[in-house]
Design a protein that fits this description.
The chain folds into two domains: 119 residues, Endonuclease I-creI (Roll), CATH 3.10.28; 99 residues, Roll (Endonuclease I-creI). It is an alpha+beta fold.
Length: 235
């Protein structure tokens, strides 16, 4: 299993980045940040979140979700622990949603060059293929990646015991399916055309046994989704 991230090559490509007491900065940046040098459960969760709801633009990291508790209780502590960055929270009234954001040239470049994110909507970087490192994660790291993705893109339905993913990446759909197959969780895949232009790939999991197994394996942290699952399963 691969666990290390090639920071040496990153610093070679970015000679303006300096290090002081294990924190990194560059000229003009107000922040001194951590840069993870290996894949951990927390970093894998963050990657899943960004693959679902992340956006990168002009050195700014941006994550959208309509639940302010998710931002304050999950996203902000996670980003602080990973990168030593304090996220800002903004309410977008016209869209009825919140977004967390921060500007850091060093972390922005790290996400692009070390984790394979794309500028703009991060999910666009995984439409046709996914970063090679995802295939080398251990099972716990994969579970945390899928948890981050579910926190961003998962849904819980009350008409019956049902949860689902709705994603735009066929390779990510297969990545999730491989994990479900490994643990024997039954699912139903589907796909549909959105707005006559782009494909949406869906994975449905039905029934108390399979939904419970999914929740036991995938450490979901989104507070609203946890509450919905508790109601759904009577826990």
């Amino acid at each position: 299993m691969m666990s290390l991230i090639d920071l040496e090559r990153f610093f070679w490509r970015n000679p303006d980045i300096r290090k002081v007491n294990n924190l990194y900065y560059c000229r003009g940046s107000p922040y001194r940040v951590f840069l993870p040098d290996r894949f951990t459960n927390n970093l894998c969760r963050f990657i899943g979140i960004m693959h679902g709801d992340g956006n990168l633009s002009s050195n700014r990291i941006h994550i959208t979700d309509e639940d302010p508790d998710y931002h304050l209780d999950v996203l902000h502590p996670l980003v602080k622990k990973l990168f030593n960055l304090e996220l800002n929270l903004y309410y977008d009234k016209p869209r009825g949603s919140y977004y967390s954001h921060v500007k850091s040239s060093v972390v922005y470049r790290y996400l692009l060059q070390c984790l394979g994110f794309s500028a703009g909507s991060v999910r666009d970087s995984i439409l046709d293929e996914i970063p090679y490192y995802l295939y080398h994660l251990d099972l716990s790291q994969r579970a945390h990646y899928i948890a981050g993705l579910f926190d961003a893109e998962g849904h819980i339905k009350f008409r019956q015991i049902e949860i689902d993913f709705s994603i735009t990446s066929f390779p990510i759909r297969d990545y999730i399916i491989d994990f479900l197959d490994y643990y024997g969780i039954y699912y139903t895949p589907d796909e549909r055309l959105r707005n006559g232009r782009s494909m949406i790939y869906e994975i449905y999991i039905y029934g108390r046994e399979d939904v419970s197994m999914f929740w036991d394996l995938i450490p979901i942290q989104h507070p609203a989704k946890i509450e919905r699952l508790k109601i759904l399963l009577g826990r």
